[in-house]
Amino acid sequence: MRLGVAVAAVGLAVGIMAPLAQAQSSTIKIVSSLPRTGSSKGQTDTIVNSIKMALDDAGNKAGDFTIAYEDWDDATPARGAWDPLKEAENANKAASDSDIMVYLGTFNSGAAKVSIPILNQTSLVMISPANTYPGLTKPGRGEANEPDIYYPNGVRNYARVVPADDLQGAVAANWAKSIGATKVYVLDDTELYGHGIAVVFSDTAQKIGLGIAGGPEGIDGKASDYRALATKIRASGADMVYYGGITQNNAGKLFKDLRAVLGNDVKLMGPDGINEQAFLDDAGDAAEGVYMTFGGIGASQLTGKGADWYKAYKAKFTGEPDSYASYGYEAAKVALDAIGRAGKKDREAIRAAVFATQNFDGILGTWSFDANGDTSLTTMTGRQVMNGVRDEEHAVILQAQ
What we know:
By secondary structure, the protein is of the alpha/beta class. It is built from 12 helices and 18 strands. It has helices spanning about 10-15, 40-55, 85-95, 110-120, 165-180, 190-205, 225-235, 250-260, 275-285, 305-315, 325-340, 345-355; strands at about 25-35, 60, 65-75, 75, 80, 100-105, 125-130, 160, 185-190, 210-220, 240-245, 265-270, 290-295, 360, 365, 380-385, 390, 395-400. Strands 9, 10, 11, 12, 13, 16, 17 and 18 form an 8-stranded mixed β-sheet that branches. Strands 2-3-1-6-7-8 form a 6-stranded mixed β-sheet, sandwiched between helices. Strands 4-5 form a two-stranded antiparallel ribbon. β14 (about 360) and β15 form a beta hairpin. The longest helix is centred in the last third of the chain and has 18 residues, at about 325-340. It is globular and about 65 Å long.
């Protein structure tokens, strides 16, 4: 998932240019780098819970190794969200610690742009439970220099267990048409994740005969008022507004002003960037009726091993896991499996084992990584806010074409 700033150079400037010699102690460290400060904390709490749960389920062992886990914050109080300098600091710290064999994260796609090239130079594998920007892994799906710019040693070290936005944006456009939208005004928060998914939505809409009334148009994420924009959207004749972006870029205020001007006759839709309690809290009554996509299967819709995990999570933590919690658990289990198969405390061996993951029988189903580090899973979820909550009972399973 999800903040595009030209900050990859932040990490590259620090430059750790050669793989570190690995000490052969019996303890391997796994760290996560997620926003643990600010409004994303509600979601990342459940991801961290799930990582710890995966380690507990394995007895904190992988093969002959004892696993030690550290929960790192890539957000700062000043930003209230992930910070590129903090993410670079985390990545460099991990790259320099010869006991760290796996880096779980990031939550935001822009943060991944910072850390991937730093970790790549020491072959430290990175597994994300939440990044969805296609350009991190897929040639021709992002900027012209992507994804190769993130892999200075020429070998992929980044994988993700969640489907990318080239699938989610397309699924959202098809869903919008199926629920009766005919003309959509597309907005985004101008960041890597938000603009990327908005472009995919817009491109797909035009291919399937869904009209575009305007956009993708970027908003000012710090604006105090969006009523003039809402008035322009009303004049366009749009019967839906699609917002590509995250809660933390003033989505609550945006949706309040859209509702105030457009009323309830115009449908509102957004991606997993707003599929969180923080958005419901910020938007208040304006969130009612909003359609949301999630680039995966919600915890309550999981079956088999996933359903068992869902029940166990609720029993253990006396609360509901948020959307990415199951993906945090899966990422940790993939890491443990790869360490066991590698059989040695060696970054390159563990990286190769992660990328060799095939037919993994996890809580998300049976799936594999492709050569780019992308999951073979393509099933997604659609929800609508009803009575102030994301309606799980009537969640719609959406399949990428």
